[in-house]
Design goal:
The protein has three helices and 19 strands. With 277 residues, it is mainly beta. It has a single domain (7-274), classed as Sandwich (Immunoglobulin-like). The N and C termini lie far apart (59 Å).
């Protein structure tokens, strides 16, 4: 890996993959059903991202919907569903065995409707996928699923490089034709971007394609925050985010995305609303 554009970061995170002793059951597994290696990996990621803060099992208050075996490791759909009564101010999506495990951190604003969110991720090897939510009172709640997939972070881009460059930064927002003022509405955000991971190899030049990806997304409704999202290389090519917000009697959804080369992409979409219920 010498000379790889992410060699320093990958070298650091390789320490996290080294098996260490962890709390196990008599059969060699852990109390939550994973292996001792899974527990050791999580112990180190917990320390890396949350320091000494306790993380509670969310039980049935949070759930991750993801395929047990992914059809395409570079485009794995993940939906995090959160019980409405569990008021979260942020949500972290972690893919334990990816080169950069923290795929995204989502902060929910006052115009957000609930804390459920859907996206597509890269999965580099068989791994736990975790959602860790922070409640309004500062508690950390977690749920996880196990996904079987391999090679997602180094898989070549689907689009032709020239086509991807021509469409770079185009933003599309899908909305219902009309939404009801005061009632939650679901929207889908798509950003045209290669989201190059830095792990993909160009067979023509015989070099790694430099990392180039969306690093932040801000979504506003009528100037009020809906979501602020920090993202990394584990988010798939052409980022796709499905979310909910509460529309008023008028206004627009505004999206601002920035990538790692300093480019800023924007889109404003008027929201047609019917009368409040």
């Amino acid at each position: 890996m010498a000379g790889h554009p992410l060699a320093g970061l990958i070298g650091l995170l390789m320490l996290v993959t080294t098996p260490v002793l962890g709390a196990t059951t008599a059969a060699g597994g852990t109390a939550d059903g994973g292996t001792a290696e899974d527990a050791a990996r999580w112990d180190l990621l917990h320390d890396l991202y949350f320091k000494d803060r306790p993380v509670e099992d969310a039980g049935d208050r949070m759930r991750i919907d993801a395929p047990a075996r992914a059809y395409d490791a570079a485009l794995v759909p993940v939906r995090v569903e959160v019980e409405p009564s569990l008021h979260l101010k942020s949500l972290s999506l972690i893919i334990d065995n990816n080169p950069v495990p923290l795929a995204a951190t989502v902060r929910f604003g006052p115009a957000s409707a609930g804390n459920s969110i859907e996206t597509r991720v890269r999965v580099n090897e068989y791994t736990n996928v975790r959602a860790v939510g922070e409640t309004a009172d500062g508690r950390l709640m977690m749920t996880r699923v196990f996904v079987k997939a391999a090679g997602g972070c180094s898989a070549p881009a689907v689009k032709d490089p020239q086509e991807a460059l021509a469409r770079l930064g185009r933003i599309k927002v899908n909305l219902p034709d009309t939404v009801m003022a005061g009632s939650p509405a679901t929207a889908q955000l798509l950003i045209s971007h290669p989201n190059s991971s830095g792990l993909q190899f160009d067979q023509v030049s015989r070099t790694y394609i430099p990392a180039h990806y969306i690093r932040s997304i801000a979504i506003r409704y009528g100037g009020q925050p809906v979501l602020d999202i920090d993202t990394d290389i584990s988010i798939s090519e052409d980022p796709n985010i499905r979310f909910s917000f509460v529309p008023g009697t008028g206004g627009s959804l505004e999206v601002v995305a920035q990538d790692t080369k300093g480019a800023t992409f924007t889109r404003t979409v008027p929201v047609k609303t019917g009368p409040a219920l």
